[in-house]
Amino acid sequence: MRSFGSTLTLNNRYRLDKLIGEGGFASVFLATDLELGRQVAIKVLEANWVKDKELLTRFRTEARAIAALDHPNILQVYDFGVVKGAPYLVMPYISGGTFAARMKQGPFTPDEIGFYLDQIGVALD
């Protein structure tokens, strides 16, 4: 990543605007695609995992597998790259919160369960 004051960019194309999620292996940022002028989500492998060759291979395999899919219920991969040894995936940004945040609001109704299972089933099919 390259820093311009307090602004971080990836490959002079993506401005990282805000951290929106963290996991054991990667962080997800809300970002702006400066070339196309759209908001995107960027998943960046954490620096402490960059030397793990097996994890790097899995990350690249994940990018290729998702990029090969074309379905309205599966997020596309817009871009894949590596900056200073750290790989990243660029995907559409979908506002509205996470599934985990929705789960914290309480139990799903039977209609909600049916809706989500239908969406997941159609994507898996």
Give a short summary of the structure:
With 125 residues, the chain is of the alpha+beta class. 29% of the residues lie in helices and 35% in strands.
Question: What would you note in describing this structure?
Answer:
Helix content is 29%, strand content 35%. It starts with a strand and ends with a helix. The protein has helices spanning 53-67, 99-104, 110-124; strands at residues 2-4, 7-10, 14-22, 26-33, 38-45, 79-83, 86-92. The chain has 125 residues and is an alpha+beta fold. The model is unreliable at 1-6 (pLDDT under 50). A 7-stranded antiparallel beta sheet has the order 1-2-3-4-5-7-6, covered by helices on one side.
What structural category do the secondary elements indicate? alpha+beta
SS summary, helix count: 3
> Mean pLDDT score, rounded?
86
Largest sheet properties: 7 strands, antiparallel
Residues in helix, %: 25-40%
Report the strand count.
7
Estimate the global geometry from the Cα principal axes.
Answer: globular
| Sequence of secondary-structure elements | EEEEEHEEHH
Strand order, largest beta sheet: 1-2-3-4-5-7-6
Span of the ends, CA to CA: 38 Å
List strands and helices in order, with pairings.
Blueprint (H helix, E strand, L loop, with lengths): L1 E3 L2 E4 L3 E9 L3 E8 L4 E8 L7 H15 L11 E5 L2 E7 L6 H6 L5 H15 L1
Antiparallel strand pairs: 1-2, 2-3, 3-4, 4-5, 5-7, 6-7
Features:
single chain, 125 residues, alpha+beta, seven-stranded antiparallel β-sheet, globular
